[in-house]
Amino acid sequence: MVKFKSTFFLLALLITVPVFSQSDEEVIKEFYKQSLTNGKSYDWLNYLSNQIGSRLSGSLGAEKAVEWGKEELDKLGLDKVWLQPVMVPKWVRGAKEYAFIESEPGKTTTVNICALGGSVETPALGIKANVVEVHNFEELEALGKENIEGKIVFYNRPMQADLIQTHEAYGGCVNQRYLGAVEAAKYGAAAVIVRSMNLRLDDLPHTGAMTYNDLPVEQRIPSAAISTNDAELLSTMLELDKNVKFYFKQSCKQLKDVQSYNVIGEITGSEFPNEYMVVGGHLDSWDLGDGSHDDGAGIVQSMEVLRLLKESDIKPKHSIRVVLFMNEENGLRGGKKYAEVAEQKGEKHVFALESDSGGFTPRGFSFDCDDANLSQVLSWEPLFKPYLIHYFEKGESGADVGPLKNDKIVLAGLKPDSQRYFDYHHASNDTFDAINKRELELGAASMTSLMYLFDKYGVK
Question: Is the full-model pTM beyond 0.85?
Answer without folding.
Answer: yes
